[in-house]
Amino acid sequence: MYSELIQDIKKKLGSELAVLAHHYQKDSIVEHADLVGDSLQLAASIPQLKARFIVFCGVDFMAETAAVLASRHQLIFSPDPEATCVMADMAPHSLVRTILEKVSLSGKVIPLSYVNSSVGVKAICGEYGGSVCTSSNAPGMLKWALSQGDRVLFLPDKNLGRNTANLSGINPREIHILDIRNNGNNIQAGDLADKKLLLWPGVCAVHFRLKPEQVMGVRRDNPGAFIVVHPESHPGVVAIADEAGSTSRIISFTKEAPTGSTVFIGTEDNLVLRLKKEFPDKNIIPLGAGYCSNMAKITPQLLARCLGSMIPEKAVQVDPKLAPHARKAVENMLKVSLQ
Ligand code: 13P
Ligand code: SF4
């Protein structure tokens, strides 16, 4: 019933409407999407889209990033603005500013935020000459950020930070996980002089569940099987896996695996189950990360309701004071990573 309603509205609006969905959305949403992608692909598509109405099926930071990049005639909608990202919520912008000011006493610190962050945090990155990144361009963006100052504050995901540092050949002794308790008062700027990378202690509530011991057990019990994980996983998990990459890389790795092979996938269940259906010639098994309860908030009923009420008052709003700085941070990423 909702499916027909969605299709009717899509037909009526034609090219005026674009429905975007992240790979972690359920099949009943993905089937209505004009574009399905990872965080970078979806963000990069916004400046190219001609549609007046853009409906973003994902979590709030994705719709906000789209709103930051949208042109004046475009309106961005979220079927459920309550779908947030637990990791992004671990870095409130006022605390990020306080900590950044504190660590900046040690020299020029460039903030580099994962796109899984609020507009307020992205604006701080733009304001302080930093940028944002996604899991698919984190190594390139970290290299860029390191070239802009004395050290980098990477946030909010300490696992993506550590995995990216490992790929970039940064010595573990040059990495420091910040103590953000007590409003940052435990941080001593003098202790940071020999550090290159300062990490915010956030994690993804889904990938956090994958434990190195468990993945080691899978490796031991399944000789010959492939293991692919998302880089939001613990570095101990990434070290055991054959590959770690963005949702798009996980898809291409699975596609490239030989017919008949067993592939264990460590990422959100909706994507793993879709790949299992898409590649029946392979034995695809979830490593056990689980569902993202916020991604799952988007349902066909909410999508239909959203499509039926696309008035400017319901569009995603970005604080006009924050928007220019946040746009600068996101545009820096698009410029550096897509050139
Ligand atoms: P990517 O699609 O960029 O890999 O992001 C994964 C994610 O956790 C989005 O919330
Ligand atoms: Fe946030 Fe993790 Fe859910 Fe992605 S999967 S939206 S990072 S909590």
Uncertain spans? none
Q: How are the strands of the biggest sheet laid out side by side?
A: 6-5-7-9-8
Helicity range: 40-55%
Describe the global form: globular
Alpha-beta content class: alpha/beta
Alpha-carbon Rg, integer: 20 Å
Mean pLDDT: 97
Number of helices: 15
Which architecture of the largest domain per CATH? 3-Layer(aba) Sandwich
* Ligands: 1,3-dihydroxyacetonephosphate, iron/sulfur cluster
Approximate strand percentage: 15-25%
User: What is the total domain count?
Assistant: 3
| Beginning-to-end CA distance, first to last residue | 44 Å
How do the helices and strands follow one another from N- to C-terminus?
Answer: HEHEHEHEHHEHEHEHEEHEHEHEHEHH
The tally of strands reads 13
The CATH class of the largest domain, by name, is Alpha Beta
Largest sheet: 5 strands, parallel
User: CATH homologous superfamily of the largest domain?
Assistant: NadA-like
Fill in the CATH topology of the largest domain.
Answer: Rossmann fold
Explain this structure to me?
The chain has a five-stranded parallel sheet, sandwiched between helices. The chain has 15 helices and 13 strands. The mean pLDDT is 97. Helix content is 40%, strand content 15%. The protein has three domains: 2-84 and 295-308, Rossmann fold, CATH 3.40.50; 87-204 and 325-337, NadA-like (Rossmann fold, 3-Layer(aba) Sandwich), CATH 3.40.50.10800; 207-286, NadA-like (Rossmann fold), CATH 3.40.50.10800. The protein has helices spanning 2-13, 27-30, 39-45, 60-69, 86-89, 93-103, 119-127, 138-146, 158-167, 212-221, 235-240, 247-256, 269-278, 300-307, 323-338, and strands at 17-22, 35-37, 53-57, 75-77, 109-114, 131-133, 151-155, 175-177, 197-199, 226-229, 243-244, 262-266, 283-286. It has 339 residues and is α/β, with parallel strands linked by helices. Helix 1 packs parallel to helix 14 (300-307) and helix 6 runs parallel beside helix 7. Bound molecules: 1,3-dihydroxyacetonephosphate and iron/sulfur cluster. 1,3-dihydroxyacetonephosphate is lined by residues 23, 38-40, 85, 116, 134-136, 204, 232, 246-247.
